[in-house]
C-alpha cells in the first residue's frame, strides 16, 4: 500500500505537535541535570569574573601608586642633596594616606637588593613595598598602606554577600578578605592545587555545585580565592529550574494553539509562492505574487513576495547599470591610455631635446662657437616653454572639472589680446595671419589671461592643422549684447560625429599611429572650459570646402554690467 504524501500544512501540524510533546516528556528526566550543569557553569564563570575584577583592582591600585612614585622621583631629581631628599620623603610619609614610609636604596651598598623587582611583599611583616628606579645606583622603595588597598579592592563587590573572597600570599597567609569564614578559609587553602597557573582565573571544584576559583598574580606573589556558598548555589538552581519548567509549559501550550490557528493562512500564502516560482521557471517574469495579507500573515511571507516582485525589475535595472558602468570603465581606460600615450610621446620629445643640447653645451672635448651656443640655448628655451605649456594644460584640467577656476572678469581689449596671442604661438611667424577686427570694437567682459590662453590654443590648433602656405583668419563682430570671435583656417573636412568629440580630453584627429603633429589633445577641451567659465560658449564647424571655423561668443562690456 502506497503511503499518502502529506500537504505542507499537515506536516507543519504533525511536526509542531511532536516537537512540543516529545521534548516535554524528555525534559522531566533531563531538565534537572541540565539546569544544575548550566547554573554551575554560570556560577563558576561569575566566580572567575569576580576573581579577575579583584586582580584588576589590585593591579590598578599598584599602577596608580607607581604613577605617584614616578611623580615623587621627578621631584627628587630637583632636590640637590640626599639629606634634603630624605627630609622630603619623611614629610611625604607623614602627609600621605597611601604610603607609610620611604627608603632610598643604593644597590652598590646592598648586594642582596634585586634590581629587577618592581614589587616586594613581606609576609612576615605583612608589608607591601613598591620599587622604582631613580638612576642606575639609586632606587626608591615605598611602603604601601595596606588598609587603603583593602578598602579599594572590594569597592565594587559590596553586593556579593554570598561570595567569600580571600587574598593570600604564596605561603597561604591571609592578607585581605571579604565575608571571611575561618572554616571555609582553611578548606580552601587545603584544597588549593600544588602547581598554580599564573594570571589565569582557574576553577578547583571539590564540591559539585559549589564552584571555587583561584587566580595567582605572579608579579605580586598574591593569590585571589573566590568561593561560592551553598545557599547561593541552591537558591539559584531552584529558581532557574522553576522558571525553565514554567516557561516551557507555557511555550508548549501557546505553540500548539498558534500552529493550529494560522496553518491554514500559511498554506495559502505558500501556495502563492509556489505559483510564482513555477511561473518564473517557465520564463514568465511579469506575473507578480499576490499573498493573502491579514493579521496572521507572517512578515517573512510578505517580504519574500515583495522581493520576488521587485526581482525582475532589479535584473533589468542592474543590466542597464552594468552597461553604463562598462561604458564608464571603457572611458576611464581610454583616458588612462591617452594620458600614458600623451606623457610618453609628447613629454619625451622636449625632454630629449633639452637633455641633448645641454649635454652638447657641457662637452669640454670640442670647441663650440657663440652662434652654435646661441642656437642651442634658443632650442632649449623653446623646448622648455613647450614643456611648460603642456604641463600647464595638464594642471588646469582638475580646475575645469571641479569648477574651481579662478576667473577675474573685467573689461578686456580684444585687439591687444589677439596681438599678444599671435606673438605667443610657436612657428606662426611663417604663416600669414589676417585679422578683421574693427578699430571701434567694444570691450569684452572676460578674464584677460584666460582669454589670451583661449586665443593661443585656437591659433596654435589652427597653425598645426592648416594646409601649408594657407592663411589663418581672425574675424570679430559684435552687437548690443555679445561679441563673436572666429578663428578660420583651411584644413581637411571633419565629419559631424567626430567634430563634437574634439572638446573631450586627449582627443585628436590623427591617432597615435598616423600622428603628424605634436600636442596633448587638451587644447579644445581647455578652450571650452575657460570660455564657459567666462559666461560664454564655443562652437566648431567644418565644411566640405575644407574650411574649419572655431567660434567663441562672449558678452559685451556695458557700464552698468555687474561682474
Furnish the topology, listing elements before pairings.
Layout: H1 8-76, H2 82-95, E1 99-105, E2 119-122, E3 127-135, E4 138-144, H3 146-153, E5 163-169, E6 174-178, H4 182-191, E7 202-203, E8 212-217, E9 222-228, H5 230-281, H6 299-346, H7 348-362, H8 370-401, E10 410-412, H9 414-424, E11 433-436, E12 444-446, H10 448-465, E13 472-478, E14 482-490, H11 496-499, H12 523-533, E15 537-542, E16 547-555
Parallel strand pairs: 11-13
Antiparallel strand pairs: 1-4, 2-3, 3-4, 5-6, 5-9, 7-8, 8-9, 10-12, 13-14, 14-16, 15-16
List keywords for this structure.
17% strand, 3 domains, 12 helices, 5-stranded mixed β-sheet, alpha+beta, 563 residues, 52% helix, 16 strands, Heat Shock Protein 90
Task: Write a brief structural summary.
With 563 residues, the chain is α+β, with helices and mostly antiparallel strands.
Task: Give a verbal description of the structure.
By secondary structure, the chain is of the alpha+beta class. It folds into three domains: 267 residues, no CATH class; 56 residues, no CATH class; 151 residues, Heat Shock Protein 90, CATH 3.30.565.10. It is built from twelve helices and 16 strands. Helix 8 packs across helix 12. The radius of gyration is 46 Å and the shape is flat.
Amino acid at each position: 500500500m502506497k503511503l499518502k504524501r502529506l500537504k505542507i500544512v499537515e506536516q507543519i501540524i504533525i511536526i509542531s505537535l511532536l516537537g512540543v510533546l516529545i521534548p516535554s516528556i524528555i525534559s522531566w528526566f533531563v531538565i534537572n541535570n541540565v539546569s544544575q550543569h548550566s547554573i554551575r557553569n554560570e556560577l563558576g564563570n561569575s566566580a572567575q569574573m569576580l576573581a579577575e575584577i579583584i586582580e584588576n583592582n589590585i593591579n590598578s591600585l599598584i599602577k596608580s601608586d607607581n604613577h605617584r612614585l614616578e611623580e615623587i622621583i621627578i621631584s627628587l631629581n630637583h632636590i640637590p642633596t640626599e639629606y634634603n631628599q630624605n627630609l622630603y620623603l619623611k614629610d611625604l610619609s607623614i602627609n600621605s594616606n597611601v604610603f607609610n614610609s620611604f627608603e632610598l636604596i643604593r644597590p652598590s651598598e646592598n648586594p642582596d637588593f634585586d634590581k629587577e623587582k618592581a614589587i616586594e611583599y613581606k609576609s612576615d611583616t605583612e608589608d607591601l613595598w613598591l620599587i622604582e628606579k631613580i638612576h642606575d645606583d639609586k632606587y626608591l622603595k615605598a611602603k604601601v598602606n595596606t588598609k587603603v588597598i583593602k578598602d579599594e579592592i572590594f569597592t565594587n563587590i559590596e553586593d556579593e554577600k554570598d561570595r567569600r573572597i580571600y587574598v593570600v600570599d604564596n605561603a597561604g597567609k591571609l592578607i585581605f578578605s571579604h565575608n571571611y569564614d575561618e572554616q571555609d578559609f582553611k578548606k580552601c587553602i587545603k584544597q588549593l592545587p600544588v602547581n598554580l597557573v599564573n594570571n589565569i582565573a582557574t576553577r578547583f571544584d571539590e564540591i559539585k555545585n559549589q564552584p571555587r576559583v583561584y587566580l595567582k598574580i605572579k608579579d605580586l606573589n598574591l593569590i585571589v580565592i573566590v568561593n561560592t556558598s551553598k545557599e547561593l548555589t541552591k537558591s539559584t538552581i531552584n529558581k532557574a529550574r522553576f522558571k525553565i519548567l514554567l516557561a516551557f509549559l507555557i511555550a508548549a501550550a501557546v505553540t500548539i494553539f498558534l500552529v493550529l490557528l494560522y496553518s491554514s493562512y500559511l498554506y495559502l500564502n505558500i501556495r502563492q509562492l509556489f505559483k510564482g516560482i513555477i511561473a518564473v521557471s517557465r520564463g514568465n517574469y511579469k506575473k507578480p505574487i499576490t499573498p493573502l495579507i491579514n493579521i496572521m500573515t507572517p512578515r517573512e511571507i510578505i517580504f519574500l513576495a515583495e522581493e520576488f516582485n521587485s526581482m525582475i525589475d532589479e535584473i533589468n535595472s542592474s543590466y542597464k547599470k552594468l552597461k553604463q558602468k562598462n561604458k564608464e570603465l571603457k572611458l576611464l581606460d581610454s583616458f588612462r591610455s591617452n594620458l600614458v600615450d600623451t606623457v610618453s610621446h609628447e613629454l619625451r620629445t622636449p625632454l630629449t631635446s633639452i637633455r641633448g643640447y645641454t649635454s652638447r653645451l657641457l662637452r669640454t672635448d670640442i670647441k663650440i662657437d657663440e652662434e652654435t651656443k646661441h642656437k642651442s640655448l634658443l632650442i632649449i628655451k623653446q623646448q622648455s616653454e613647450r614643456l611648460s605649456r603642456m604641463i600647464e594644460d595638464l594642471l588646469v584640467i582638475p580646475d575645469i572639472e571641479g569648477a574651481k577656476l579662478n576667473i577675474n572678469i573685467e573689461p578686456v581689449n580684444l585687439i591687444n589680446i589677439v596681438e599678444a596671442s599671435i606673438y605667443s604661438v610657436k612657428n606662426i611667424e611663417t604663416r600669414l595671419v589676417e585679422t578683421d577686427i574693427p578699430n571701434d570694437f567694444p570691450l569684452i567682459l572676460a578674464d584677460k589671461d584666460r582669454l589670451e590662453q583661449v586665443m593661443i590654443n585656437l591659433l596654435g590648433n589652427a597653425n598645426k592643422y592648416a594646409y601649408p602656405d594657407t592663411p589663418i583668419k581672425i574675424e570679430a563682430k559684435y552687437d548690443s549684447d555679445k561679441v563673436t570671435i572666429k578663428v578660420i583656417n583651411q584644413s581637411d573636412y571633419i565629419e559631424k560625429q567626430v567634430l563634437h568629440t574634439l572638446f573631450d580630453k586627449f582627443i585628436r584627429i590623427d591617432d597615435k599611429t598616423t600622428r603628424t603633429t605634436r600636442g596633448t589633445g587638451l587644447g579644445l577641451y581647455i578652450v571650452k572650459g575657460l570660455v564657459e567659465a567666462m559666461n560664454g560658449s564655443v562652437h566648431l564647424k567644418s565644411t566640405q570646402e575644407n574650411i574649419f571655423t572655431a567660434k567663441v561668443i562672449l558678452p559685451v562690456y556695458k557700464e552698468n554690467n555687474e561682474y
